[in-house]
Design brief:
heterodimer, A: alpha/beta, ten-stranded mixed beta sheet, three-stranded mixed beta sheet, 15 strands, 15% helix, B: Glutaconate Coenzyme A-transferase, nine-stranded mixed beta sheet, three-stranded antiparallel beta sheet, 12 strands, 29% strand, globular
Amino acid sequence: MDAKELIARRVAREIRPGSLVNLGIGLPSMVANFVSSDFGVYFQAENGVIGLGARPPEGMEERHLTDAGGGFVSAVPGAASIDSAMSFGLIRGGHLDMTVLGGLQVDESGHLANWKVPGRMVPGMGGAMDLVCGAARVVVAMQHSAKGQSKIVPRCTLPLTALRRVDLIVTDLAVIEPTGMGLILRERAPGVSVGDIRAATEAALIVPDDVPEMILA
Amino acid sequence: MKGALSPEAAAGMIPEGARLMIGGFMAVGTPERMIDAIVARGVGGLTVIANDTAMPGKGIGKLISAGLVSHVIASHIGLNPETQAKMISGEITCELVPQGTLIERIRAGGMGLGGVLTATGLGTEVEEGKQIVMVEGNRYLVETPLKADFALIGAWQADYVGNLSYMLTAHNFNPIIALAGRTVIAEADSIVPVGVIPPDAVKTPGVLVDHLLIRAA
C-alpha cells in the first residue's frame, strides 16, 4: 500500500455515519473511496454540491457536474446543488461536521499552513481558510515529510491558514492530536516505531505509554 | 430585460479597463461565447472578479492568455500557471481573497450592505490593513463590498424575459454576481418560452438581467 492510500484509509475511520464532510482536492479526496456507502455520509464539494458521488462511467460525464478541482463526478441519491453563498454558509455557519485538508506544515500549536510558499507557489487559499475556521472538526491529511524535511514543525514558517487549532493530523507515519498541551502521538503506522516517528518529526511530541498501531478502513 | 445581443455586440459594450464579474468555477458555469467575443474584441486593462482564472484555453484563462487582464480578484489561481507567471512578472496584480469571503463581499455589494464581518482570515495575511471589530465577544474582520461594471453570467436555461436557471455545480458565483454588476449579461445553454422555467425554479429573476446573448449557432 502506498503512503497516500494508507493515509486515506486511516482518515476514513474518522468519518461518522450521517455526517456532512468536505474533502480537499488531491490526497484528501481519496478518503471517499474507503467510506462505505451505507454510512449515509454526504460529501460536500465547495463549488456547489452536497452528495458528491464517484466519477461516472467513461462517456457519461456531465460538464456541469464537477468537484472543486474541476474533475467530473456524479451525485448520490439525496444530493443537492447549491450556489457559492450557500456552500460557504454551510462551511462558515457551523453546519459542516468535518473537513479533510492537505497541509504544508502543522506546528506545535496545531496551526496549519497550506496555501502559500512565498516567492515560489502562490496558488491562493481557495476555500481553505473558511474551512479551517468553520468546520466542526478539521483533519489534516499529509505526508509526514517532504524532500526529507519534517512537515510537523515547532512553529510554522509558512503563512498560516487560520488561528484555529486543527483537531487531528494523519500522516504516513503517525496519527497526532494537537492539544492545548502540545502534539500528542496517538498512533503509529504499521511497522513504524515511536523512535522512527520521533526521528522524522521536528516538533516536540508528547508520547503516551501506549501508542497503538493504526487500524485502517 | 432589454433584448438579445450577439456576443460581438455584447462585447462591444465593454470598454477598456472595465471591471468584470464573471461566473464559473474552473470554467464550469462560465459564459464561454462571451469570453471568446471579448478576446476577439481585444479590450485590455480589465479587472476580473471571479472565483478563479480557470486554466489556459478555458473560460477566464482565455482572457489571461490574451493579455487583456491587468487585475484579478479571486480565491484561487493555482490551476492556471499563466496567471501565476504574469503575477510574478508584474503584468497582472492579484488580490487573493478567501472563497467564502469573496462570495459574501460580492453578495454585500449586490444586496446593498456596507460589508461583511467574518472570522475567516483572522491572524493570517488576509487580516493585514483591515479593521477588526468585536461583536458579542467575538472578533471579526471587516471586509468591504464588491461591485462591477458588468456581470457576465453562464446559465443553463433562460426564458424570453431573462429569468435564469442553473444546472448542478454550474450555479457557483452566477446567481450572486447577477446583483452586483451594473450591467448584467447572461449567456444560456438554451433559451426557452416563458413558463418553461417554473417560477420556483428561477434562481435569477429576469428583472436583474439586462441582456441575453442570442442562442449559439
